[in-house]
Amino acid sequence: MLIKITFLFLFALLLAGPAWADTEVTDSTDVSGDDAFEHVSNSFYVVTTYDRFGDYSGCAANAGLRFDSLGIPQGATISSAIVTFVSAGNDAGTVCNLVIYCEDTADASTFSSSTDWGNRVWTSASVSWSAVPAWSGGTSYSTPNIASCVQEVVNRADWSTNNGLVVGVFDNSSDTDAQRVYRTYDYGSQFPYITIDYTEAGGASSQVIIIGGH
Questions:
Q1: More confident residue, 36 or 10
Q2: What distance in Å separates the CA atoms of residue 155 and residue 139, rounded to the nearest whole number?
Q3: Are strands 77-86 and 59-67 parallel, antiparallel or unpaired?
Q4: How many CB atoms lie within 10 A of CB 41?
Q5: Which of 46, 93, 104, 123 could disulfide-link to 36, CB 3.0 to 4.6 Å?
Q6: For domain 32-211, is the CATH number 2.60.120?
Q7: pTM, entire model
């Protein structure tokens, strides 16, 4: 009887597919053009040690972050996607409200100019990041789960495993000067990274991907 039960258990494991251990992959942003921000007073910044989002001197500040070599196959199921920032200073502000999208393209390029930024098309899926708490310098802060935005991109027929993914963080009627400022690639360390949990299409495996130096 014991032999029979053991055989049935092993057979069930084979049917379920391989039980892979969680995998952690780290890939730092490669160039200045992997992070940028727009100040809606017609300024666009690519090479800067600090980027920001929220309200900056009465105008919206919107930020973009690009991650590549994600290793996520087309059609994978995204269960969690979170971007983490390290604050560049003490930002109390008052009410900082944001909304997050991904760029709706199969292989997002680096940032170059305000024209380039303005021509990007964003996902229909979005996630609100409302009433962002005060930030303290040198402390890490994370977005809500933006899996729905990432899922829309990964579901594209032309998405491929190591393509670039851009996340856009936009002001959403924040109070005046309610901004959050964070360290970028040009700071030299502690720049933003994304953590994604996913399951491959048709499989039972789950992997954790961390993108970006920290």
A1: 36
A2: 34
A3: unpaired
A4: 11
A5: 46
A6: yes
A7: 0.85
